[in-house]
Amino acid sequence: MPIRKLVPEKVTRGFTLIELIVVITIIGLLASIVATSMPGVIARARGARRNADMKAILNTAKVIYTMTGRYPESIEEMVGHEIENGDEIGIDGYPRDPWNNEYLYSIDDGKPRVVCLGRDGAEGGEGEDADRVLPSGKARES
After folding, report:
1. pLDDT tens digits, 46-100
2. Which domains does the chain have, with CATH numbers?
3. Cα–Cα–Cα angle for 50, 54, 59, nearest 5°?
4. Pairing of strands 140-141, 88-89
5. Angular region, 121: left φ>0, alpha ψ -120 to 50, beta rest
6. Smallest Cα–Cα separation from 42: which of 140, 132, 128?
7. Are strands 81-82 and 88-89 parallel, antiparallel or unpaired?
8. Does the pLDDT at position 108 exceed 80?
9. Mean per-residue pLDDT, 98-125
């Protein structure tokens, strides 16, 4: 009989406590690095969503103007707007900004204007609280 069969083979199953501690520590370090970098990413995502919503409102107003010869008076008029042949154009539901405030829409000097008052929902402010105005296709701070 060969010697190999007389000596039982060492069977390893699972991980040692040290291996688990090392892996959990590495995961914790990576999570803390990601968590500290997230506020900037979230702010940029909110800004991108706000700009996309504002452009969609403005573009919808322009399409309605092209089809009917007049700009809509309010955002409500753009939600599911029907034109003469029964086709629907417009936006789906009443849009709200990333902070759950309503966008302001008006017609100034014969042109549509969309305003987002920012996180604070009040005029003025800096950073995420700053107002954004979309008068003619490009967002800018006011």
Report:
1. 889 999 999 999 988 998 898 888 898 988 888 876 666 666 777 878 888 898 9
2. 47-141 (3.30.700.10)
3. 150
4. unpaired
5. left
6. 128
7. antiparallel
8. yes
9. 88
